[in-house]
Amino acid sequence: SFPSSVRLVEVGPRDGLQNEPDPIATSTKLELIDRLGGAGIRHIEAASFVSPKWVPQMADHREVMTGLSRRSGVTYSALTPNLRGLEAALECGIEEVAVFGAASETFSRKNINCSVAESLERFAPVLERAGKAGVRVRGYVSCVLGCPYEGEIAPAKVAEVSRALFEMGCYEVSLGDTIGTGTPLKAKRMLEAVAREIPMDKLAAHFHDTYGQAIANLYAVLEEGIAVIDSSVAGLGGCPYAKGAAGNVASEDVIYLLDGLGIETGIDLNALAATGNWITQAIGRPNRSKVGVALNAA
Ligand code: HMG
Ligand code: MG
């Protein structure tokens, strides 16, 4: 059955922008984050403490995290793949971070330059240090419904990596359909395999919309009981290590779906749509939210 409320994790400022080739001003990122908070979003993934050589667009992570005007009740998180990233994030006063692994060996190597097993070894001290600092850690698993290099990924592998992250201390595991190749039945089966290892209320859906299936996939996993959804305003984004990957499912489209199902989110759809319109104009990208385009035309 459907959950009565859903927590939306807005990943636009990180996942949405990380792949933009031209530098985006820190002030634009800060305004985006502020507008998202103003629309009622309570969890915003704001930056990424990764190598600026690998992901140049996230090089201003310190300026973003320290430049935020924090709203009460809003969590501002960032990716930290290793201890070095975590230490830098802690210096910025971060309260939540995320480690990111994969269910595909090849993707793991391309994305974070190590095997899946090695990545888990790197994450362990990050979780330990974060725990001591009172910082919550979220875990991502990429390629849960397919890999750009390996194709099909076994649900058992997704379950295994998810369980490892959860047992290490991640408070929540976000399941990433990195390249958006999933379909609803496949998404359900994958989720069933993971939910045998981890309680459903510790899982999140992080679906990209490359094949236009993300909303259908979300409907399928909502029915299974998923109550945390990652999305990106205006459907911004793409992963630098997954060629052809489109953005995350658009936040506006997700809220429209949830509103229609009578599922509570606390988010103001019109304010969100206006934010999508503003950021796409600011960075010269098309608005990939159908709901956003429709509302802004109305
Ligand atoms: P590495 O080469 O294995 O590590 O990279 P290293 O320790 O040997 O360091 C290499 C270089 O990076 C060195 O610099 C380090 O100083 C530097 P150099 O000596 O060459 O000048 N470095 C750092 N700089 C800043 N901050 C740090 C840091 N660590 C090392 N924290 C590493 C390993 C993970 C750092 C690298 O592979 C990397 O940065 N990868 C980027 C991965 C990334 O950001 N991918 C996109 C996000 S994941 C995603 O989008 C998927 C998701 O949305 C879910 C889904 O959709 O599936 C989450
Ligand atoms: Mg992603």
Automatic annotation (TrEMBL):
UniProt EC number: 4.1.3.4
Keywords from the named record: Lyase, Metal-binding
Domain Pyruvate carboxyltransferase: 6-273
GO biological process, one term: L-leucine catabolic process
PROSITE patterns attached to this UniProt entry: HMG_COA_LYASE, PYR_CT
Listed pathway(s): Metabolic intermediate metabolism; (S)-3-hydroxy-3-methylglutaryl-CoA degradation; acetoacetate from (S)-3-hydroxy-3-methylglutaryl-CoA: step 1/1
Enzyme class: lyase
Catalytic activity entry: (3S)-3-hydroxy-3-methylglutaryl-CoA = acetoacetate + acetyl-CoA
Coiled-coil regions, chain positions: none
Keyword Lyase: yes
Signal sequence, renumbered to the chain: none
Domain of life: Bacteria
GO molecular function, one term: hydroxymethylglutaryl-CoA lyase activity
UniProt similarity note: Belongs to the HMG-CoA lyase family.
Protein name: hydroxymethylglutaryl-CoA lyase
